[in-house]
Amino acid sequence: MIRFLIIALCSATFSCLAQNTNTAPAQVEVKTNDSLVTQSRDTVLLKSYATRYNPRKALLYAAVLPGLGQIYTKKYWKLPLVYGGMGFIGYNISVFEKYYTKYKLQLFQVIDGNPNASIYPEDQLRNIVNRAQRQRDFMIILMGGVYLLQIVDAHVDAHLKEFDLNPNLQVKIEPTMSYNPLTGMQTGFSMVVKF
């Protein structure tokens, strides 16, 4: 224990002696278009590229026109997902709206006393109308969800544009074999994450 204290005290003394005690900082000039700008030898300012992708702008662009936030953050591959999802849901909204209006009209005609207006009886027409209305309303809610999701996605992409990944991070899928006394020999795949 005493040896450890002596070694720690000596290393602290040497590290204190290694510090520069010069009080007048020397000015160093560096080009302004670099990402690292040094004003003096003991002060380093880092310019961020995050100002290029303002999260508020991305949020506003995505709110005004769906997909524009993804264009602003240069995530072009997400555009088919945004417009494909909205197109698919919009198509389903129109289909269920047609069913709703068609069978609602038939229901009103049956209620008015015209039994030849539909091949379905009144109770089945009510069920069809209610189901078509419920599906149409659900698709409208899904459309709102896709709209909000693409707004959040553009906002998060703008925030994480300058996120630094660890170069040592690795994810691999490897084949594995294991022995269990109850089930015997098992083979499969495992996902290995190395930090």
Number of E-type strands = 4
Q: Compute the gyration radius: what is it? A: 33 Å
Look at the helices and sheets and give the structural class: alpha+beta
Low-confidence stretches: 13-21, 23-30
C-alpha termini separation: 34 Å
Averaged pLDDT, please?
A: 82
Based on Cα principal axes, name the global outline.
flat
Strand order of the largest sheet: 1-2
Characterize the main sheet: 2 strands, antiparallel
> β content, as a range?
15-25%
Spell out the helices and strands N to C. HEEHHHHEE
Measured as a percent range, the helix fraction is 40-55%
Number of helices: 5
Explain this structure to me?
The structure is a single chain. 52% of the residues lie in helices and 16% in strands. The strands form 2 sheets. A two-stranded antiparallel sheet has the order 1-2. Strands 3-4 form a two-stranded antiparallel sheet. The protein has 5 helices and 4 strands, in the order H-E-E-H-H-H-H-E-E. The longest helix has 38 residues, at 122-159. The protein has 195 residues and is of the alpha+beta class. A hairpin with a 3-residue loop joins strand 3 (170-180) and strand 4. The chain has a domain at 52-162.
